[in-house]
Structures are given as structure tokens and as C-alpha cells.
Amino acid sequence: MHPSELTGTYTIDPAHSRFGFVARHAMVTKVRGSIPVREATAYLNAGDPAASSVHVVLDVAGIETGNQNRDAHLRTGDFLDAAGHPSITFDSTDVKHVGGDDFEVTGDLTIRGVSRRITVPLRYTGTAVDIQNLVRVGFEGSTVINRKDFGITYNAVLETGGVMVSEKITLEFDLSAVKTA
Q1: Which ranges of the sequence are coiled-coil (predicted)?
Q2: How far apart are CA 29 and CA 153, in angstroms?
Q3: Where are the domains of the chain?
Q4: Which phi and psi angles does 57 have, rounded to 5°?
Q5: pTM for this structure?
Q6: 123 partner at 20 to 30 Å CA-CA among 10, 44, 107, 146?
Q7: How many of the other CB atoms lie within 10 Å of CB of 87?
Q8: What number of other Cβ atoms are within 10 A of residue 160's Cβ?
Q9: What is the pLDDT of residues 80-107, one digit of tens each?
């Protein structure tokens, strides 16, 4: 497929994508989780990446770490406040091709009603026509945020002097998008 054929509107496929996070627990181990996609679209412009855009809405109530008690706590006001802020959103403001298969997507990430500008390095992982004759593109990447920048300040001090949950959270993205137009 010629790169110019990639230009178009895409829907991110939630069944084949992951919006994940990693946090340090008790300063000794990592806890990984994911938040399901409520809606996610992208416009890709192969000839002019700056004309591309991304819009993502994640469903906070669906957060999953593999532990029901922890998931329930993450939904409370101590952390993500799913009742008051049911969505996490990202809206791009700029897309740059930085070389090869690497891009930087800058935009506004909103968590708990607090918006901060972040830049996410993404790597293009390929294009395929699937068994339903749909054009799919893939991207992956990660970035680090400070949860306190979004008003998530809950923590507990450990006897050893550390804290229960790290301030720095790694956001991970494994994206499969289907061309719709």
C-alpha cells in the first residue's frame, strides 16, 4: 500500500488496542492496568502529518488492574473519581513526523477535569488489509505524567519511608485503527 493511501479518517479499534498505565506500588513493584475506549477517532494525513488529529475518550468506570478492590479504589475520589469525572480525554493540537516511523502527538489530556498539554512519542508499526478487507494501521508508544498535575494526590507513607503509589505514571499506547473514510 502506498503511504498516500493511508490518508483518511480512522476509528480506533478497542478490541485490538490498549490504553494502559504503569504505577510503582510500595516503591518495589509495578502495577499495570488499562482503561477501555469509549470513543476514539483519528484523521491521518500522510502527506502533511501536521494536518492529522486524534480524539480519544476513555471510560474511567472500566479501569482494570487485575484486582477488584484496587480497581474500586481507583474509581473513587482518592484517584480518578469516576462518579464526578467519568471520562479521560485526549485531543491533539499538533502532530509531527520526527523521522522514520516516529511521530510526536501533542495535545490536551484531561483527567478529573484538569487539562494538561502532553506530548506522546508514537511509532508507526505498520499497515495491513485485514480479512474483512479493512485497512488497519498500528501505532505504539508511551509517555510519563505526574498524577499530582491532575489533582490526584492520595498516598500513604510506608514504614520504610517510601510511599504506597508513585507520583510518576507511565501511559502506554498500543493502537490499531480501522480506516472508515
Answers
A1: none
A2: 20
A3: 3-179
A4: -130, 120
A5: 0.91
A6: 146
A7: 17
A8: 9
A9: 999 999 999 999 999 999 999 999 999 9
